[in-house]
Amino acid sequence: MALKLFNLPKLTYQCLLPRLYLPLNSLSSLTQNPTTSADDPHVPAIFNIITSSPSSDSMIKSLDSSQIPLSNDLLDQVLKLVRFRRANPIRTLEFFDYIHKKKGFIHTQYSYDTMLDILGRSRRFEEIWRVLKEMHHKDPAFVTPKTAAIVLGLIANGCSVRQTVESFKKLKKLCISFDVLYFNTLLRTLCQKKSMSDARNAFHSLKHDFKPNVNTFNILLSGWKSIEEAELLFQEMLDSEIKPDLVSYNCLIDVYCKNYRLDKARKMFEEMREQEIKPDVRSYTSLIGGLGSMGEPDEARAVLKEMRELGCNPDVAAYNAAIRNFCIAKRLGDAFGLMDEMSQVGLEPNVTTFNLFFRCFYYVNDMRNASSLYKRMRDVLGCLPNTQSCEFLIRLCRKHGDVGFGLELWEDMVLNCFGSLTLVSDVLIDLLCDEGRLDEAEKCLFQVVEKGQRPSNVSVKRIRVLMELAQRHESLHKLHEAMSTFEYGRVENNGLSC
C-alpha cells in the first residue's frame, strides 16, 4: 500500500544529515515497564515495604509479618523493579542480605549482577566491592566478564579513566582466570564510556600482561573515525600475526566510507575476496551509506541489486541506508518507493525506516504527512514507534498546537507501552498547560507515575503551581504521595570514592 503524500515544503540537506540524530541511546531502559512482566502480586508488596520502611529493622519486621514466600524469581522481579524505579539502593541491599540469610536460599549470578547494577547507579562503590568479595567467596566463577562489564561500566560513568583502570586491576584478585576476555571488557568499556584515545592508551599499557586476539583489535577498530589511526591499528594487528576477520575488514570499510574514501573501501572488498572472506550485508551497507554521503543515491540503490546477484540479500538496515540517501537528496518519492520494494521482497519496514521520514517532516514542519505516516505505521503495518518517533511527532504537535493528535499519540503510548513517557510528557504537559487543559495535564502526569517512570522536575513544578493556583488540595496531596516514591531516584555520589 503506497502512502499518499500531500504537497511537501522544500527540504534542506542539513535537516537530514546523519549526525543530527537525537542522542537517545541511553533511553532504551525507559521504553519497557518491568511491572508488566512481573504479574506476581507479591512483587509490588515487597517493593513497597523496601521503599516505605524508615529503617532496616522496620523493613525486616514488615517482611517477617507479611509471610510472603521468598524465591529467586521473586527476588529478581523485585530487583528489576527497584532498578527501574531507582529506589533506595541501601535498603534494597539490606533486603538482599536479609533474604540471603534465609535457610536454604542461594543467590544466583543474575541476582548478584542486578544488585551490582543498582548500587552502581547510585555510585555506592564501597558496597559494590563488598558484594563482589561476597560473590568471590561464594564461588569465584560468579565474577564473570559480564560482571566485570557491569562494574567497570558503572565506575567509568562516574569516575576517571585512571580509577576505571585501577578498578580493573583490583578485579584480578576476584577472578579465577583473569585473561584476555576481561582485557577486552575493559577496552570495550573505555570505548563506550570514555574515548578511543583512552582505550588505545590502556591497550598499549596493558597489552603485555595479556595475549591480545582478533576481538581485541576489532573492539579498537570499531570506534575509530580517523583513517590514519584505524590503518595504524590494522597494521599492528598484521604485525602481531593476527589474521583479520570479516569484522576487522568491515570496521575499516566503515571508516573509509564515513571519510569519503570509497576508493580505499572498494580496495578492501578486493582484498577480502583475495583472502577468501566473503563480504556480508554490513560490508555493503557501509558502502551504500558512503555513496549517499558522496551524493550518489542512485548508485547506492544499484548496490542493492548487486548484493542480490552475489547471493547476499539486503536486509532492512541496507534498505534503510538507501532510503536515507534519497531523503538527503530530497527525493522522497524514491525513498517511499524503496520502502514499498522492501515489502515486495519480504522485508517489513522497521521503526528506523519510519523515523527517517518523521525526521524529514519534523524539519519542514509538515504535521499533515507526519500524522498520515504514523497512522499507516500503526494501523497498516503494525509497527510500534520508539522514543525518537514519539519525540518528532509530539514536538510537531507542540509547534502546531495540535492537542487532539498529541493526546491520541499519548494514549497509544500508554496503552501499548512504547516510548519514553517521561520525555514525551514534558512536551505534552507543556502544550496542555498552555491550552488551559489542566485536567488532562494532571492525568498525563499521573499516568507517567503509574507506569513506573519518573516525570521531570520541570513538569512536576509547573503542574504543582497550577494546582496551587486552582486550589486543588486533593490533587496536590496525591502528587506529593506519587513523587515520594522517587525520593531516591537521583544518582548522587554520596562522598564515596571509587
Describe this structure as you would to a colleague.
The protein has 498 residues and is mainly alpha-helical. Among the domains are: 351-409, no CATH class; 420-489, no CATH class. It is built from 27 helices and no strands. The chain has helices at 35-38, 42-52, 56-66, 72-85, 89-100, 109-121, 125-138, 145-158, 161-171, 180-193, 196-206, 214-221, 227-239, 246-258, 262-274, 281-293, 297-309, 316-328, 332-344, 351-363, 367-380, 387-400, 403-416, 421-434, 438-450, 457-469, 473-484. Helix 10 (180-193) packs parallel to helix 12 (214-221), helix 16 packs antiparallel against helix 17 and helix 24 runs antiparallel to helix 25. The longest helix has 14 residues, at 72-85. It is flat and about 70 Å long. The protein starts with 34 loop residues before the first helix and ends in a 14-residue tail after the last helix. The model is unreliable at 6-38 and 488-498 (pLDDT under 50).
Describe the structure using short key phrases:
498 residues; mainly alpha; 0% strand; flat; disordered C terminus; repeat; TPR-like_helical_dom_sf
Q: Give the structural class.
A: mainly alpha
| N-to-C series of helices and strands | HHHHHHHHHHHHHHHHHHHHHHHHHHH
Mean pLDDT, as a whole number?
87
Largest sheet: none
Strand content: under 5%
Radius of gyration: 26 Å
The portion of residues assigned to helices is 55-70%
Distance between the termini: 57 Å
The shape, in one word, is flat
The total count of helices amounts to: 27
Low-confidence stretches: 6-38, 488-498
Number of strands: 0
